[in-house]
Amino acid sequence: MYNPKTLLLATTLAVTLALPAHAQRAPAPITPEHVRAHVDILAGPALRGRGSATPDEAAAAAYVASMFRGYGLAMAPGMTSYTQPIDVVSLRLDGAPVLTANGVAVDSPLLFSSSGQPVRGKLAAFAGTDPKQAPAAAAVIVTNPAANGLQLAGGVDPSKVQLVIIRATDQVRGYYDRIGGRPRLPRYLKGETPRPRPSVIALGDAAFDRLAAQDGAEIALELPGLVEQAQVTTNAIGFLPGTDPAAGVILISAHLDHLGVRPDGKIMYGANDDASGTAAVLELARVLAGKKHRRGIIFAAYGSEEAGGFGAHWFAAHPPVPLADIVANLEIEMIGQQDPKLPAGTMMMTGFERSTFGDTLKAHGAFVTTDPYPEQNFFRRSDNYALALKGVVAHTVSGWATVPTYHTPEDTIDKLDIPFMARAIQSLVKPIASLADSKAKPEWKPGGQPTE
């Protein structure tokens, strides 16, 4: 159920902010006050961090949908609502994991993540640091003290290894606390199968050392109390029809969810990630809805990016217009702070060099530049990638992608640089309007379109 107080606040603000765009021919320019009004709702205490596929996320989607409707946007073609509910299946572990070696219980295993399946088979010790060199075995224990256990586990081929066992160092235990002291279990779209991944367990020093000495032991991991539960994630979508239906559409998007409430009760507000991007989509919708353009523009706020990009994947698989008609997709994520590595006042665009889109935006005044973190593969790590894999020229713009508050309870409204956000969003208005009125369209450069 929606929180009635939350919906009242959302509806009131939606009406208040939407009226100017509906009542005047030239909407007011984007100001810090407009931006702050959105993030106050999206990252405020009432929405409790907008956890993926939760009623709080649904309330955030309802707020965004109310704004789209108030700005005079239409429902997207084929849709009967401004919201798009999507069925998700998630697993929850109500019991404690049980790990045994040769039938003997192993003390206090910390389960970080799991495929949701039991593991049975031989244990192999691995003294290397390259996950690609890990031996094929049911379970692998990482014995090299120089190895970063969590990073190594994330790079192991799940078709070769079902379980990775690492040492519970202070750093590992600290990370376990930061993720809420509970395992990450599969979530997947209803009707699909979860993406394969190895389970990861950390052991205290004594238990780890005993197990490391048992190379070849028979390992079993059981997950008592595993529950499958149905959830719903929600996209919010608005459409500004173009004057030439054959000219295609532009997609402007962000994700509206964040990490919600941790098991210890701390709220992960997600002001920067990605209330900031959702506010940008709303402000661009408000201003661009002030006139008709040759091309249509779809404005989308996806659900469940944090849980696996489900909203964007569903959109890409069930688009309201043919994917071939989407001229370009601009995803907006984490524009709440400026990166000290970037020129003052600019945003980075992931995969800038892959297409002509960034150059086109920049030539018309957008405050965008290249990504200074190519080693982080940010191009693949946001919702743009679901569209790019389908052939759409799709990129993400961000303010500071490596901001220290990322995925912490400190990602709060007071940490945002609201004036920077307003200037950055305003810089996108003319470039998007120009592209919407143009016959030209961005293209992938040779080798730029991703294939996997």
UniProtKB/TrEMBL annotation:
<dbReference type="GO" id="GO:0006508">
    <property type="term" value="P:proteolysis"/>
</dbReference>
<keyword id="KW-0732">Signal</keyword>
<dbReference type="GO" id="GO:0008235">
    <property type="term" value="F:metalloexopeptidase activity"/>
</dbReference>
<dbReference type="Pfam" id="PF04389">
    <property type="entry name" value="Peptidase_M28"/>
</dbReference>
<protein>
    <submittedName>
        <fullName>M28 family peptidase</fullName>
    </submittedName>
</protein>
<dbReference type="InterPro" id="IPR007484">
    <property type="entry name" value="Peptidase_M28"/>
</dbReference>
<feature type="signal peptide">
    <location>
        <begin position="1"/>
        <end position="23"/>
    </location>
</feature>
<dbReference type="InterPro" id="IPR045175">
    <property type="entry name" value="M28_fam"/>
</dbReference>
<feature type="domain" description="Peptidase M28">
    <location>
        <begin position="235"/>
        <end position="424"/>
    </location>
</feature>
